[in-house]
Amino acid sequence: MLAAALVAVLIFSGVAFAGNEPEQGKAKYVFLFIGDGMGVAQRRAAELFLGKIKGVGRSEEARLVMNTFPAQGLNTTSDLTSVIPDSASAATAISSGHKTASGVIGMDPGDKISYENIAETAKKKQMKVGIITTVSLDHATSAAFYAHVPSREQMYDISMQLANSRMDFFAGGQLQKPEDKKNPGKPKALDVARKNGFTVVTGRAAFEALEPGGGRVIAMNAPVDQDQAMNFTIDQRYGRGQVTLAEYLAKGIKLLDNPQGFFIMAEGGKIDWACHANDAGAAIHDTLALDEAVAEAVKFYRQRPRETLIVVTGDHETGGMSIGFAGAQYAFFMDNIRQQKMSYLQFNKELNAYKNTPPRDSARFEDLLPLIKVAFGLYKMAAEEKNALEQKVDAGKAPGASPEAKKAGEDAEKKLKDSLALSDLELKALKDAFKQTMLSPKERAQDDRAYLLYGGYEPLTVRLTTILNNKAGIGWTTYAHTGAPVQTSALGVGAELFNGYYDQTDIYRKIVQITGLTR
Predict the structure, then answer these.
(1) What is the pLDDT of residue 57?
(2) Are the beta carbons of 133 and 267 closer than 8 angstroms?
(3) Which of 10, 188, 214, 375 is deepest in the core (most CB within 10 A)?
(4) CATH architecture of 2-321+479-515
(5) Quick one: pLDDT at residue 17?
(6) Is 89 exposed, middle or buried (0-12, 13-18, 19+ CB in 10 A)?
(7) Are 79 and 99 in contact (CB under 8 A)?
């Protein structure tokens, strides 16, 4: 998958879209990509990571496909509740052009008016519609393109609205609440969907067998995580058989292509989840997965450039990610992130296996050092090696030291500072987190300091991701969303309208203007 993304970047990077003339006419084929939680820093981090994979000398030589688009803008994301929105209100703003309160999907804050969204308008105009996400199909962002509920927590109601919708193609994770377990007499969403003509498939084999002309489809991934979402891209080796976002998009294009056109919304939903947990490695891999899906849309654009519009945006930024950290000062070491081999969720699974095995009173942090090295590349440097490096540092700084000794001292100091070896301070922080991890959630510290350190996540895991990120030069300000503007990119018919600085609701208005899709 990553190899395909690299090929796409090589094809479309640099001057690929430079000097494009504004396309004429109306867009008949529309792709809207939403990186949930994807701000400017998330895109830049993924690009820097890509540069390391390609082995380029300058980071500008490796570009995300989305970052090569001729139109690049910034937009604000506030909702009616706060400068810092949630995904429900943010996605509603993008899908309908209306601001609403946090937690509300497709409705006004008073729960009286349902806002028709662009996917519903497209269906009225005889276009086909696809909705794709890496999280559960009833999650807030995707739901904003087919559902209308006062609260995003009404997931059974959302699932039922999906089943009764007129959309043509749903793909991604499964459903969190496809049935109302408190009221077993109520219908199950997937049963209703089948009665309404949907073909429901689960897993790769059934998905690959889908062909045009087979009617409307709900394609769900298997395996999924505990929240019915697709696994993180970085964890796909642990969940073999997962369909990628790019594969879902390519199939969606094939199934939806028709003379009346189509509208496809594709969400990279787990970028947000990774950033909530301050897990830069997982966020970067899922950003690259989203970019690979964008590359699939560009292939279609190449065939029909005067009828196609591609827009890539984020619903909000998550985590307050920064390319720069106080402890690293002006240095940046993206190679350190490349050592990460699993997400925080996968590490939690491995950690839980340990927690459930030995008696708690015999648990030792040192038992986990081999797993920590495999997962994040972090390790405890042997005392002998550390002493030898420190001696070289001292020798290099001694008065009258030879040029060779100075160079050896500088190299030793760099290894001590920049390597993945854990410092005494970092080891202490991890041991403190380990003590909290071994307690039951009710026994753990609940004060402000504990929240600042762990954010409600598994204490040891979040300290590991934070330490690795800091060693790379990546910082975080929060475990929640932020009010930072996000980057929006566009290619194709009317793309120039997406240049500049505007509000999130304007994304809807610009797409309507370019497509002529009025309510």
Answers:
(1) 65
(2) yes
(3) 375
(4) 3-Layer(aba) Sandwich (3.40)
(5) 52
(6) buried
(7) yes
* Alpha carbon of residue 25 to chain centroid: 33
Q: C-alpha distances in angstroms, 387 versus 156, 377, 418?
A: 60, 21, 16
Query: Of 329, 286, 333, nearest to 135 (Cα)?
Result: 286
Tokens of 477: 């300000």
Nearest to 113 by CA among 104, 122, 103: 104
User: Among 155, 127, 125, which Cα is nearest to 140's?
Assistant: 155
* Rounded-to-integer distance, Cα 395 and Cα 392, Å: 5
- What is the DSSP track for 222-272? SS--TTSPPPPGGGGGGSTTPPPHHHHHHHHHHHH--TT-EEEEEEETHHH
Q: For the chain, give the mean pLDDT.
A: 92
Token pair recorded at residue 432: 């403190």
**Local confidence band at 519 (pLDDT 50, 70, 90 cut-offs):** confident
Looking at this protein, which amino acid is placed at residue 496?
E
Return the pLDDT at 382: 87
DSSP 149: B
Q: What is the pLDDT of residues 200-215, one digit of tens each?
A: 999 999 999 999 999 9
Task: Measure the CA angle with vertex 123, ends 118 and 126; round to 5°.
Answer: 130
Does pTM surpass 0.85? yes
Q: Looking at 127-203, which runs of residues are DSSP E strands? A: 128-133, 169-172, 199-202
Is residue 454 within 8 Å of residue 462, measured between CB atoms? yes
Q: Is the pLDDT of residue 361 over 60?
A: yes
Hey, is 379 helix, strand or coil?
strand
Cβ–Cβ under 8 Å, residues 27 and 307: yes
Pair 29, 308: CB distance under 8 Å: yes
Delimit the CATH 3.40.720.10 region(s) of the chain: 2-321+479-515
Q: Which residues contact 363 (CB under 8 A, 6 or more apart)?
A: 354, 355, 438
Contact 104, 92 (CB under 8 A): yes
Closest to 71 in 3D by CA, of 494, 485, 484, 508? 494
Which tokens go with 231?
């696994």
Kindly state the percentage of the chain with pLDDT values over 90.
Answer: 82
CA dihedral 486, 492, 498, 499 (to 10 degrees): 100
Round to whole Å and give the CA distance between 256 and 371: 45
Rounded (to 5) percent helix, strand, coil in the chain: 45, 15, 40
